[in-house]
Write a structure and sequence with these properties.
By secondary structure, this protein is α+β, with helices and mostly antiparallel strands. It has 6 helices and 20 strands. The protein has a 5-stranded antiparallel sheet, with no helix packed on it. A 5-stranded antiparallel sheet has the order 12-13-14-18-17, covered by helices on one side. A 4-stranded antiparallel sheet has the order 16-15-19-20, with no helix packed on it.
Length: 378
C-alpha cells in the first residue's frame, strides 16, 4: 500500500507513532481549508519542510514527555518512530504534537501570503512587519468589466475600523490611462457602518503611457468592518483637463465589486476611562485602539449629542482631534504624519480615526494627545 507521497504506509508497531503519516494527514486537512478561503496551505510540503517540522517535534516531545527517539529509525524519507516509555501518558505526546504542528502550519500560512509590492512600498513595510501583518492582509481577486475596462480588487490591509484597498485598472489595448485620470464618482458601503470616510488615488506609475494603472483606496468607519460585506462602485472613467478645469469622459461605465472582508484585526485596545474637557463641558474617553496603520478613539457623553444638534460653523474645526502621538523614544507624530483622519458622531458617541502615512510600531507608543490632554497608553 502506498500513501499520498509514495511512501510505504505500513502500520507502526505497538506503542509507536508514525509522525510522517500525521504530517500527511495535517496537510490533507489544511488543504481542505482552502475551500472556505482560509488559504493555510497551498502547496505540498517539501521534504526539507517536513524535516524541519519533525526536528521541532522531536525536541518538543523530548523536553515535555521525556520520550526516547530511536535514531536508527530515522531515514532519508523522514519516516520517524517515537518509542514510548512505560508510564508516560499518551496525552502528553498528543499535546506536544498538537502544539508543534499548530505552530508549523501557522508558520507555513504566514509564508504563503505575499504582499503586493505596490502596497508594501507605499506603506514602507520591511521584512519584519510584512510577516507580522500577513494575517491582517487579504487577497481579494474580485473584478468588474464594463466597455472593455476592468477594475480588479487585488489586496487589502485592515484593522477593526480602517482599511487600504489596492485595485488594478486596465483599459483596452491601444488606449492610455493618463496620470490625471479619475472616476466621476466612487461609492463605498460596508454592512453595519453608519459613517464612512474614504479617498481614492492613482499611485505613481512607472509607465504612464500604457493602459494599466493602480488605485489605492483608504477608508475609515465608525463601526467594526471585519467579517462584513463591502460594496464598491465606480462610475465613468475620464481625465482632468488643466486648461478647462473639467473632466473629459474616456470610458462610460458602472463598475460594481462586492466581497466579504476576512482578515485578522491587528489592533491593540486600551481601556481609558478618562475625562476630557471640551467647550467647558466634560466628556469621557472610553477607549483608544492602535494598529500599525491607524488610531481609533471612542469618546462618549451627553454633551456630544447636544453639540451634534447644532449645525457647526464653517470655520470651526473638529470638536476633538488627535494632536500628537508620542513614542517612547520621545518622537512626536502630528497630523502632518497622517495620511488622513475623520470624525463621526453616533448619538452620544464621538469616534476619531487617524490613518498614518507610515506603519506604526504599536509597542513604542507612549501616549496620545487629544486636544491639549495627554493620555498615557498602559
Amino acid at each position: 500500500m502506498q500513501n499520498r507521497n509514495g511512501k510505504k504506509a505500513g502500520a507502526a508497531g505497538s506503542g509507536e507513532t508514525r509522525i510522517d503519516e500525521m504530517i500527511d494527514r495535517i496537510h490533507e486537512v489544511e488543504t481542505l481549508n482552502m475551500v472556505d478561503a482560509s488559504e493555510l496551505l497551498q502547496y505540498e510540503l517539501s521534504e526539507e519542510e517536513k524535516g524541519r517540522i519533525l526536528t521541532m517535534a522531536m525536541h518538543k516531545m523530548k523536553a515535555e514527555s521525556n520520550e526516547s527517539i530511536d535514531s536508527n529509525k530515522i531515514n532519508g524519507q523522514n519516516e520517524i518512530v517515537i518509542c514510548k516509555k512505560r508510564g508516560v501518558k499518551r496525552s502528553v505526546l498528543i499535546a506536544s504534537l498538537v502544539a508543534v504542528f499548530a505552530f508549523a502550519t501557522t508558520a507555513v500560512a504566514a509564508e504563503v501570503f505575499q504582499w503586493d509590492t505596490r502596497i508594501s512600498n507605499h506603506l514602507g513595510m520591511n521584512e519584519t512587519n510584512r510577516a507580522e501583518l500577513a494575517e491582517s492582509g487579504m487577497n481579494v481577486d474580485v473584478s468588474a468589466v464594463q466597455n472593455g475596462v476592468t477594475i480588479k480588487a487585488v489586496q487589502t490591509l485592515g484593522d477593526a475600523n480602517n482599511m487600504y484597498i489596492l485595485l488594478d485598472v486596465t483599459t483596452p489595448e491601444g488606449t492610455v490611462i493618463c496620470p490625471n485620470s479619475r472616476f466621476d464618482m466612487i461609492y463605498l458601503k460596508v454592512d453595519g457602518a453608519t459613517s464612512l470616510g474614504y479617498s481614492c488615488d492613482f499611485l505613481p506609475d512607472e509607465s504612464e503611457n500604457d493602459n494599466k494603472a493602480t488605485l489605492l483606496l483608504s477608508m475609515e468607519a465608525n463601526k467594526s468592518i471585519n467579517d462584513k460585506t463591502i460594496d464598491l462602485r465606480f462610475e465613468n472613467l475620464g481625465h482632468y483637463k488643466m486648461e478647462t478645469g473639467e473632466i473629459t469622459p474616456d470610458f462610460e461605465g458602472d463598475w460594481k465589486l462586492q466581497w466579504k472582508l476576512n482578515y485578522q484585526d491587528s489592533s491593540t485596545k486600551y481601556p481609558v476611562d478618562q475625562s476630557l474637557s471640551v467647550n467647558g463641558e466634560t466628556v469621557n474617553v472610553d477607549s483608544i485602539s492602535v494598529s500599525p496603520i491607524a488610531l481609533n478613539v471612542k469618546v462618549s457623553g451627553s454633551y456630544i449629542k447636544e453639540y451634534d444638534a447644532v449645525p457647526p460653523q464653517p470655520q470651526e474645526g473638529d470638536l476633538i482631534s488627535v494632536t500628537a502621538v508620542t513614542l517612547k523614544d520621545g518622537t512626536v507624530l502630528s497630523q502632518d504624519d497622517a495620511s488622513g483622519w475623520g470624525t463621526s458622531i453616533d448619538g452620544d458617541t464621538y469616534t476619531i480615526n487617524m490613518q498614518m502615512k507610515k506603519l506604526l510600531d504599536t509597542e513604542q507608543i507612549a501616549s496620545i494627545t487629544l486636544n491639549d490632554t495627554v493620555i498615557p497608553l498602559k
